[in-house]
C-alpha cells in the first residue's frame, strides 16, 4: 500500500504485486432457522496462526429474518488519493428487511462490532427494496443497487448513502427511465459509463427457483443496462435474449481505462463479453457456453443446466473464474484474449449429481465420473457458489450458499449439515486449480446451529469490491 495515500491501492497491479497476503476473511452468514440471527463471521486464514481455518468471531445483526447477502465498503481504492479517508466500515445490506448493518472492522479487525443499523424504512421511503451490491464512489458516497419497489415488483435502481452521516440520501438514477430489473453494477468513469445487470422480480424469485417463470419477461431479466455516469441516465438496454437469462455478476476488466468486461448469465450457464463499439454504443456477445448435462432420476431423463452463480477476474486481468451451482464445479479461464476465453482449470464438487444421486446420461465436456468431495472426513453437500480470490491470484476461496430459499429447495442437505468454505490453490503461470485438502470452514458446527455462508471480503479490499479510477 502506498504510504501517505488513502484507502486501497494505487492501481490493480499495485494490489496484485504489492498487496499483503490475506489473514482474515469476513463472511456473510445467513441463518436458515428464522428464529435466529444472521451474522458476519470473521475467519482466520493466516497459515501461521494457531486458529487458522477457524471462525474466530461472530458479529450478530440483533434482529431476525434479515437475509444478509452481499457486502461492501464505506471507501475503497476509488478514494485512494484522499488520505483523510479510512476503509473501516463494512456495510451489509439485507434482502428481506432492507436494513443496512454497518460493521466497524477498523477498531479491532479480529473482533468487528456493530457500528450502526440503517433502518430499512429509509430505503423503502424512496420506493426501493431488496438491496444487493455495494460500491463506494470517489466522492465519498456509497451506492447500493436495489432489485425491487416497495411491493417487491422488479425495479432496477440505486440508493445513495452518505458515508459520514450514514443516512440514505436518495436514489442515483436521473431521468424518467428506470431499468426493469436490478442486481449488480460496475462503473468506469473513464468512459463515462456504468453497466448494471438483472435478476428478476423479488416477489417471485424469493419463493424459490421455478423454471416456468423463466420465459416470463415480467419475472426474469435478460438485459444489461447502460448508464451515462456523468448524468446518471439509462441510455441503452442490451437484451441478451433467452441464452442470457438472469445476467448476474458483472465485471469490467480491472484496468480503469478498459472498455470491456464480462457478465455471467445464470440460467443457461453462459458468459457474455460486453464492449464499447466503434460507434460509441455498447455491445455484447457470448464467449463461454457451458452445455447442459442430460441426467437420469427415477428412470426419467432431464436436462441439467450449470447455473453460473458467480464470476470474478484476477487483478492482472489474466484469468476469469466462475462457479456452476447446479453442475457443482469451479472453473478457471485464461482471458488474455478476451474474445476467446480458454478453459485452463477446473475442480468438480458434484452439485446436483452427487447431492441427488443422479446418473449422467450425456456430458458434452467431460467423461470422468462425478464423485463426492470429502475434506477432513466431512462430505460437502451443496455446491460451490461465491468466489473470492487473493490479491496475488494464488488462492481462491469458495463458499456454498446462493440464497436461503433456493438453498432450501435445491440443496436441503446443506440446510441440515451447514455450508462450507474451501480453498483452491491456483497455478497463475500456466493455469490450473487444485483443492487444498487441509482447509475447510465447516459452518455445520456453528454455536447456534448450521448456517449458510455467502459473500467473502478481506479487510483491505479485493478484486470484487474495489474499482480504480484512471489517472487521466
Automatic annotation (TrEMBL):
Keywords: Selenium. The keyword Hydrolase does not apply. InterPro entries: Se-bd (IPR008826). One of its GO terms (molecular function) is selenium binding. The keyword Transcription does not apply. Belongs to the selenium-binding protein family. This is Methanethiol oxidase. It comes from Parnassius mnemosyne. The lineage of its organism: Eukaryota, Metazoa, Ecdysozoa, Arthropoda, Hexapoda.
